[in-house]
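INFO  loader      accepted 1 record
INFO  loader      residues=502
INFO  predictor   begin
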Amino acid sequence: MKASTTGLVDNVTRISVASSATAAGGSLRSATSAAFTLAEREMAGTHSCITLIDGDGNTVDRRTGRPDGRARREAERDFGAQPVDDVDLTISCGYPVTDPLSGGQVGVLRLMCTPRSAPLLGIRFLADVASTIERGLGRDPVRPAHLLFAAYQVAAGRRSSPLVAVGHGMVLANQAAADVLLPRDYATLQALRPVGGTPTRRRLRLWRECEATVVVHAVDGTDGVLAELELVPSPASRTTKPVQRSPGRTLPPELERKLTRYRAQHLSVAITGERGTGRTAVMRALAGEHPVIHLRSSTDVDSLVSSTPSIGSCDSLVVVDEVGSLSESAALAITRLLDTGVGWIALITRTELELPPAHRNLVARCAGRIDLSPLRERIDELPLFVRQMLDALGASGRLTLTPDALRVLGAHPWLGNFHELHELLCHLLRHQQGRDITVGDLPERFRRTPAKRPRSLLEQVEYEAILRALRASSGNRIQAARNLGISRSTLHRRIRTFGIAA
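INFO  predictor   done
INFO  writer      dumping tokens
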């Protein structure tokens, strides 16, 4: 069975990874010992010391070079006649070690050596040692994290409703779970780990102000849990009131014209994009003055399908929120409605890469399509978006971002997309000291330049799948996208994300 990820491998996303060394445990020590044994050969004849410190600040292993006669004489000439262990190791550098399963950092390598030894060792040497440790971690089949991941793979292959695995410093969730759970929910789910062999069944109020019935299973050989969720429809999940446009980003004129055409023809539309890219604003613009019926769970869909005749006779826009959270039977039911032309339907979802086949087929049935790019892929338009949002907030002319501030914001990853930008501007308006916003006025997390992290094991699977498709199509992106079962625009985005030269 294939593993799943935010991409080409079915319907799973890695939500978060703790940086604690407990994610690796004894496997980290054994992998480090093997790697350091090899490293000692490179360190032979040098005054040097290599140490691995885990995420809790504990020393996992430490080895020193064993200088030969020539090295000892050089050290005595540089430092005087001192014992080897007392030689001043004046050059120091570090390198991270990551878990190949989760992508999280599990430790830091630290190398100390004399100036004469630095050209022989240094960062490249540390990178090789880190790579050896990571390969050792990836080969260990009995690690609790691997057992948790294997249990998750099996469960993910048979369901598309919310599923999450929590434990050993990581959280794995399919897209349906990612859309309804917050980090505080993960601790609640792990606390429900059953003591015996019988799964825990409970109705919970989630932090996103919705309710779900959860079934929590203990995963043997680990302290982790596997939780299956079924959202409980709320009385407010359906409404027939016209929606009002909320203040925010002005839609481009060409998009406004497209939405006007879709609305006049009552075309069914798929609105795709990451959270925070403006999917709800586009849906509101599509509805205009028409009432809206929201479907937020598979139960809502079943209720709607049973009243199919009334759907076709009403003037409401039926909005299916987060298509990826639907059960396969609910997705097939909406597909049948689209095939028969009953009702005016809009689907809100992430990209096809994050959907299982039945849901991907549902999105493909829509006659209209709106693909919303994340902010990080439109960073050259950042000054325009800032002006539009300030206008919408009634703060035009009150703030000006300096060129340096815009440059720093351009390097920010913008995981929250336009919603995150909106929150930043609201913060600056509340705390502004002057009209010009400099780098120093930005919150600290926006001032940091994120380090480029290595790909996780799951991201590597997606990267290699794209490379294979491009090679098989001799670089033809249209054919590669067709072979991968995704849209051309989605393929373009992933190529940019991974920096693939194609």
